[in-house]
Amino acid sequence: MKSDATDTLALREGITALMGTLGFPGSRPVLLGANFNVIFHLHPYPIVARVSRVPSSLRAALADGRREMAVAIHLTDRGIPVVRPAPGVDAGPHVLGGGPVVTLWQHVPPTARSPLAPSALVSRAVDVEEAMGAYRRPLPRLGAWRFSRPAVRFLREHRADPTVATLVEAWGATNWELETADPATLRPAHGDLHAGNLLAGPGGWYWTDFEDASTMPVFWDLASLVTNAWLLEGDESPLWRAARSLPAVERDWPHFLLAVRARALLSTAANTWWSATGEGDQTFAARQRAALGPALDWLVAAGRR
């Protein structure tokens, strides 16, 4: 979902005008990234604008923006370091010219830090899971799973190699399992808690990207953190080993395996879809697909232990 120069220029102009009306004149939007969100640093202010590009109605996009902010505020209140809605300004959501929806966030200047140890990463994920467990506002059911559906539809129509057939077949069984799950087995989750959404800043490490917050299977956030490492490195991955040694995982091994299986299928399907349409890394997606079949077999065997 690339952003061309014309779109980016229009967004810059709209955001600059919006910031002027909010009392921040002369902002210069500097593009930081563009995918399902277009992200600008509004120099010279310590504010970042996130413009949603996920196809949806205006009503749904506004609801998504409000939910993102509510989750970030909740986690902050629970002591979790996160990128917060921008202080000192109406952080939104705002509508740009009747079209895109923009939210405003604090700017976390990139900071060089030593990578966190696997055990420290896992500990931070557990902290988020525990904090999200206390979230009481409504969340979409299985919202983080949603990108798997259009991905699989695309793959059924446009890809026919054996690794895709394995992916699509396993997705069908897992989708049925999730859709028919007892609601009591679903928990509030960040939804996309991988290490790429943990930013190094001047004061430490900050979780970001709350748009996939939803009710998901138990251990979903932990699985989001460790699944790609397990898929590509095997069960000797230090990150995987740190997660599977948790007492909660040992006590509820089947639910952990379900979350890992679903996350592996979501990630592989989505990355294969995006790479096939020119949006993602084809080499990485091919590695995921090649690893998926043996990994699914391993999960079946692990579930019998």
| Structural class assignment | alpha+beta
The CATH architecture of the largest domain is Alpha-Beta Complex
Number of helices: 10
Topology pattern, helix = H, strand = E: HEEEHEEHHHEEEEHHHHH
Principal-axis shape equals globular
Helix content: 40-55%
Looking at this structure, what is the CATH superfamily of the largest domain?
Answer: Aminoglycoside phosphotransferase (APH), C-terminal lobe
Note the main sheet.
5 strands, antiparallel
**What CATH first level of the largest domain would be assigned?**
Alpha Beta
Task: State the strand order across the main sheet.
Answer: 1-2-3-5-4
CATH topology type of the largest domain: Aminoglycoside 3'-phosphotransferase, Chain: A, domain 2
Low-confidence sequence ranges: none
Please render the helix and strand layout as text.
Layout: H1 5-21, E1 28-34, E2 37-43, E3 47-52, H2 58-77, E4 94-95, E5 101-106, H3 118-132, H4 148-158, H5 162-179, E6 186-189, E7 198-201, E8 204-207, E9 214-217, H6 220-233, H7 238-244, H8 247-251, H9 253-276, H10 282-303
Antiparallel strand pairs: 1-2, 2-3, 3-5, 4-5, 6-9, 7-8
Describe this structure in words.
The chain is an alpha+beta fold. The chain has two domains: 5-106, Phosphorylase Kinase, domain 1 (2-Layer Sandwich), CATH 3.30.200; 118-303, Aminoglycoside 3'-phosphotransferase, Chain: A, domain 2, CATH 3.90.1200. It has helices spanning 5-21, 58-77, 118-132, 148-158, 162-179, 220-233, 238-244, 247-251, 253-276, 282-303, and strands at 28-34, 37-43, 47-52, 94-95, 101-106, 186-189, 198-201, 204-207, 214-217. Strands 1-2-3-5-4 form a five-stranded antiparallel β-sheet, with helices on both faces. Strand 1 and strand 2 (37-43) form a beta hairpin. Helix 4 packs antiparallel against helix 5 (162-179) and helix 5 (162-179) packs across helix 10. It is globular, with a radius of gyration of 20 Å.
